[in-house]
Structure formats: C-alpha cells, structure tokens
Design goal:
By secondary structure, the protein is mostly beta strands. It has one domain (19-70). It is 0% helix and 46% strand. The protein is built from no helices and five strands. The strands form two sheets. It has a three-stranded antiparallel sheet with strand order 3-4-5, with no helix packed on it. Strands 1-2 form a two-stranded antiparallel sheet. A hairpin with a 6-residue loop joins strand 3 and strand 4. The two termini are 16 Å apart. 0% of the residues are buried. The mean pLDDT is 83.
Length: 72
C-alpha cells in the first residue's frame, strides 16, 4: 500500500507581507513556527487528506487552527 507524504510547512514567509491572492480571494500564508508543536496525521477514511492541528500566536493571543490538506 502506498503511504502518503505529509506536507512540509515552510519555515519562512514566501511573500513580503505573508498574504497572497487567488481569484481575488485573499489568503494568509501558513508558516510553521518551530516554537509550537503541530499535530498532523493522514485521514483514516480518505488517505489523500492530511488533518492538521496547528497553534499560532496572533496579536499576543494563541489560536488553534484545525484544517485538512488535499495531498493530490
């Protein structure tokens, strides 16, 4: 059985302001902060999906983000 490869988050921003646009929709870059642990696993039902729990600090407030990445 083929095992999926986990997405590797960048250590530095690729853009100057950390944001970018696709089809006039504004997106924020997700950069892995080495200070905080990220929990990630491959979805049991959909092997091409990676579930991620990532902690970030915005404006001195810690926030947890739960999201899924399509690895196709």
């Amino acid at each position: 059985m083929k095992q999926s490869i986990l997405y590797q988050f960048p250590a530095n921003q690729d853009t100057k302001k950390g944001t970018f646009f696709i089809d006039n929709i504004k997106f924020k870059e997700i950069v892995k902060d080495p200070e905080y642990d990220t929990d990630t696993d491959i979805d049991q039902d959909f092997k091409y999906m990676q579930n991620v729990l990532m902690c970030t600090v915005l404006n001195d407030r810690m926030t947890e983000f739960n999201f899924s990445l399509n690895l196709n």
